[in-house]
Design goal:
Elements: H1 2-24, E1 39-44, E2 49-55, E3 61-65, E4 74-82, E5 85-92, E6 96-106, E7 114-122
Parallel strand pairs: 1-7
Antiparallel strand pairs: 2-5, 3-6, 4-5, 6-7
Length: about 120
């Protein structure tokens, strides 16, 4: 009886995780060409946290991750509105280098009005 309840609980947990993963992987409109913008280089060690602050913009414009980055090097762990900024926190997951590119778009549209790039080197 206890074993059956455990199996059911595990099955429900796996189903819930699969549902949430499907939601988080939902496609949005890709960000188009990025205009020139500031580029920063960050050097850190495996296991450390790296925070990136992007300024809020008016008129429904939002910062979006514009290009894929190497998730073996960094993984996003949180995002929050703090004061006049959007702050994203990444964990340095493994050694290597990757670039996290952001585009400022109006909602989920493709046109980027601004860009920011962060090259992260993890040793």
């Amino acid at each position: 009886m206890i074993r059956t309840k455990l199996i059911v609980a595990v099955a429900l947990s796996v189903a819930a995780a699969a549902t949430l993963a499907g939601v988080s992987l939902a496609d949005s409109t890709p960000v188009g060409p990025l205009p020139n913008g500031p580029t920063s280089t960050i050097q850190t060690q495996k296991g450390q946290l790296v925070a990136v602050a992007l300024p809020h913009r008016a008129n429904g414009r939002v910062w979006r991750v514009a290009r894929q980055y190497n998730a073996r090097v960094v993984q996003q762990v949180s995002e929050a509105d703090i004061g006049k900024n959007v702050v994203l926190v990444f964990r340095a997951a493994g050694t290597g280098t990757t670039t996290i590119a952001f585009g400022l778009t109006r909602g989920e549209t493709a046109k980027a009005f601004e860009s920011r790039r962060f090259t992260v080197r993890v040793r």
